[in-house]
Amino acid sequence: MKLILTAPVEKLGIAGDVVEVKDGYGRNFLLPNGKAIRWTRGTEKQIEGIKRARDAKEIRGLDHANEVRGQIEELSVELPVRAGAEGKLFGAVTAADIAQAIKKAGGPAIDKRTVQIAKPIKTVGSHTVGIKLHDAVTAHVSVAVIAAAAK
């Protein structure tokens, strides 16, 4: 089965790559999870759009990854969430919440899939989160989870 990747897939390729995979892998994993689209002559034109979007938010090389790591690690990130009286959250902090908080704090726009949370964040306080910018570069940012003011 010939597919065009729309997201990076480990040991397969990055967004915009045309890959040949077994039918079951493509039909049961890549297509339902939105990581690929079927290849046709018509979708061949979409490859350029996918590659342009990838280049706009991609970390370009090791030097650029180290520069972005410096920007992210300097940030003071606060994330207001609903919490109970004892400091327990109503739910958990997600990778998307952290990515949005980093952008709001003045950092670069990062993909939520690059945020690495060791264990679910379910309490108020300071938590360290990893952000994989490059194969060799991971930024660590301290996220201060604070109780939001009641409305």
TrEMBL record:
PROSITE patterns on file: RIBOSOMAL_L9 (PS00651)
InterPro entries in alphabetical order: Ribosomal_bL9, Ribosomal_bL9/RNase_H1_N, Ribosomal_bL9_bac/chp, Ribosomal_bL9_C, Ribosomal_bL9_C_sf, Ribosomal_bL9_N, Ribosomal_bL9_N_sf
Keywords, ordered alphabetically: Ribonucleoprotein, Ribosomal protein, RNA-binding, rRNA-binding
Domain Ribosomal protein L9: 13-40
One Gene Ontology cellular component: ribosome
Keyword match Ribonucleoprotein: yes
Keyword NAD appears in the UniProt entry: no
Pfam families assigned to the protein according to its UniProt record, in alphabetical order: Ribosomal_L9_C, Ribosomal_L9_N
Role this protein plays: Binds to the 23S rRNA.
Family (UniProt): Belongs to the bacterial ribosomal protein bL9 family.
Protein name (Swiss-Prot/TrEMBL): Large ribosomal subunit protein bL9
